[in-house]
Amino acid sequence: MCGEQWIMCPICGNKTRLKIREDTGLINFPLYCPKCKQETLICIKQLHISVIKEPDAKTQSRQPMSLILMVIGFFF
User: Fold this and answer.
1) Residue 64 lies inside a defined structural domain of this protein
2) pTM for the structure as a whole
3) Overall domain count for the chain
4) pLDDT confidence tier of residue 55, bands split at 50, 70 and 90
């Protein structure tokens, strides 16, 4: 029988509802914790769990004010 273990939440450390075995492999798996109600993206290989940090959303760059004033001046 292969070794098994519960997946622990990387945020709060509590046990989640998932159990993995030594031969379990997951890539980009969205792990949900019922205790802290957070979702974390993880990868699992040979009972080693690694957390994938998602990049923050980039803010959209705003147009320079001179360009906006030039467009407004075109209509008046």
Assistant:
1) no
2) 0.66
3) 1
4) confident
